[in-house]
Amino acid sequence: MSLEQSDLQIDGHAIELRVCAEDPLNDFLPSVGRLDRYRIPSGAGIRVDDGYSEGMEVPIFYDPLLAKLVVHGATRAEAIQKMKAAIADYEVEGVSTTLPFGRFVMDHPAFNSADFDTNFIKHYYTPELLLENRQAGAAVAAKLALHLHLSQKRNLRVAKQVASRWPTRTK
Fold first, then answer.
1. In the predicted model, is pLDDT for residue 109 greater than 60?
2. Domain count along the chain
3. Residue 145 resides in a domain
4. How far apart are CA 6 and CA 34, in angstroms?
5. What is the Cβ-side half-sphere exposure of residue 30, based on CA atoms within 13 angstroms?
6. Helices 99-107 & 76-89 angle (0-180, nearest 10)
7. What does the alpha-carbon distance between residue 22 and residue 40 come to, in Å, rounded to a whole number?
8. Domain assignment present for 166
9. Are 88 and 19 part of one and the same domain?
10. Which of 9, 23, 41, 135 is the 20 to 30 A CA-CA neighbour of 35?
């Protein structure tokens, strides 16, 4: 190689999430089935290396890896936010995936502060915590939807009755 170590420079922060057809609520057991919906996120600083497409079958006979989701940001915090957005934009239906677990990790204070080791799951994760996070997120979404509905309802006004120029029919 013509490059020297001194020629290399660190440029930002990258995070990779292995998107596997595994169920984080069931001890990460493989999840098999048809990918009824499979839409990958895209955008600046987002890369997806995958080998699946919508309609394909995920078999039990092979590694359950669907894709590697990689994001890049100027800082660790920016990369974490970008990963959260990419996870939210990733659509998979038909099999369980590690995407909800990835979101759990991105939200966890130990991960955000980089104060963790390879025992992260052992120390910080239980399926119950993942369910609690999902329920909290669903509650926030429901409250937001109700707020938007009520604010739009206030803006809607029934039009005043206007006399019609059409003749009325009498018997």
1. yes
2. 2
3. yes
4. 48
5. 11
6. 150
7. 17
8. no
9. yes
10. 135
CA distance 73 to 44: 9
How far lies 15's CA from each of 26, 68, 88, 161, 170, in Å? Answer: 25, 10, 15, 60, 75
Co-location of 69 and 88 in the same domain: yes
Q: What is the pLDDT of residue 137?
A: 58
Give the domain extent around 27. Answer: 10-124
Which tens digits make up the pLDDT trace of 58-105? Answer: 999 888 999 999 999 999 999 999 999 999 999 999 999 999 999 999
| 27 located within any domain | yes
CATH number at residue 109: 3.30.470.20
Q: Which residues contact 116 (CB under 8 A, 6 or more apart)?
A: 108, 110, 123, 124
Q: Report pTM.
A: 0.74
Token pair recorded at residue 65: 């890896």
Least confident of 1-10, 14-23, 118-127, 132-141: 132-141
Is 46 domain-assigned? yes
Same domain, 109 and 62: yes
